[in-house]
Amino acid sequence: MPEKFAFRMNLNPGQAAEYKRRHDEIWPELAALLREAGVSDYSIWLDEETHHLFAILTRTDGHTMDTLPTNEIVRRWWDHMADIMETLPDNEPVQVPLRKMFHLE
C-alpha cells in the first residue's frame, strides 16, 4: 500500500524565487529517476516566516528512495541547490522527517 512521507528542509532567506525557478525547471532525468524510485504526488511548500520547506510525497511499497543519495543525477541536483538552502557537508539537503499527527480523507 502506498504511503505518504513528509519532511522539512530549510531555505536560505531571500531565496524563495530562485528555489521556485529551479524547481519549475526540474531536470527531466531527475523527475524520471524519482518516479522510477516509486515517488509520486510530490509537492514542496514554503513557510515564508521561517523559511522552512515542507515536502510531502507518496511512495510505493518497495520504493527505492534510500538508493537515491548514491545516484549521480541526485548528487548533481544537490550541488545545484546547495547555494540556496541548508545542506550537510556533502551538499545533501538537511532533512527533518515529520511525524503524521492527523489525516482526514
UniProtKB/TrEMBL annotation:
Its EC number is 5.1.3.32. It catalyses: alpha-L-rhamnose = beta-L-rhamnose. Keywords: Carbohydrate metabolism, Cytoplasm, Isomerase, Rhamnose metabolism. Its main location: cytoplasm. The active site is at residue 23. The keyword Transmembrane helix does not apply. One of its GO terms (molecular function) is L-rhamnose mutarotase activity. It is found in: Cytoplasm. It is an enzyme of class 5 (isomerase). Substrate binds at residues 19, 42, 77-78. Pathway: Carbohydrate metabolism; L-rhamnose metabolism. It comes from the Bacteria. Gene3D superfamilies: 3.30.70.100. Pfam families: rhaM. Signal peptide: none annotated. Belongs to the rhamnose mutarotase family. PANTHER family: L-RHAMNOSE MUTAROTASE. Homodimer. Involved in the anomeric conversion of L-rhamnose. This is L-rhamnose mutarotase. It comes from Chelativorans salis.
